[in-house]
Write a structure and sequence with these properties.
By secondary structure, the chain is an all-alpha fold. The chain has 12 helices and no strands.
């Protein structure tokens, strides 16, 4: 199957299955999304939403987050993995946004990644979600699916997978596809016991070919 046919197959199925896929993290302010994405490492969006609701109700402004002690923030987010490091990140993000970025989430990767807890993936999510930049964030779901669907090699790094996905798909489709990949990986093509019955991507799926051996 050539590149165009494969791309059309994947996008056609995703559009059929997940036409309205979007961010599942709840937020009302730009900085809340930045913090939510930072908290989402090694946990689920559902848990992050539960914790964030408490966190942002208790500290409804950047100033209040900045003034809160690490222990106070840790007590709110302790149900999440890596909560001690994440509490440090929240404090740093709030402080830098106030004193360095005029309370506005930066729209470039360099400034975003200058804050604790904000790596390449988090920065890409913010850039594509808030600013419609041409990025393709790679989380665990995207990473897994890219390899299962033969869009990347088994030993490719996250950065290389990102580069290959950006070359394979059209820029105008990055945002929707990013969410479709996540939803497909989260609800259908799971890491363990993926739902393969009736999947229309079996022709390009390496996972099912291995299972059939």
């Amino acid at each position: 199957m050539n590149k165009i046919d494969k791309r059309n197959l994947i996008q056609s199925y995703f559009n059929e299955l997940l036409p309205n896929a979007s961010c599942e993290l709840n937020y009302t302010k730009d900085y809340e999304l930045l913090i939510a994405v930072t908290l989402s490492a090694q946990t689920t969006d559902k848990k992050v939403n539960e914790v964030d609701k408490i966190l942002f109700n208790k500290y409804p402004s950047l100033e209040e987050l900045d003034k809160a002690s690490l222990k106070e923030i840790e007590d709110v987010i302790k149900y999440l993995g890596l909560y001690k490091n994440k509490a440090i990140a929240i404090k740093d993000i709030a402080h830098q946004l106030i004193y360095k970025f005029d309370k506005k989430v930066p729209n470039n990767k360099k400034d975003l990644m200058s804050m604790k807890g904000v790596g390449n993936k988090v920065a890409n999510v913010i850039l594509i979600e808030l600013f419609d930049k041409e990025e393709f964030p790679v989380d665990t779901h995207v990473f897994r699916l890219a390899k299962r669907l033969g869009l990347a090699n088994e030993n490719d790094s996250i950065i290389l997978v990102e580069e290959k996905l950006k070359k394979f798909f059209d820029k105008k489709d990055y945002k929707l596809l990013h969410h479709q990949f996540i939803h497909f990986g989260r609800y259908y093509c799971k890491a363990i016991n993926p739902i393969c019955n009736n999947c229309k991507l079996q022709a390009v799926c390496k996972y099912i070919k291995k299972a059939d051996r």
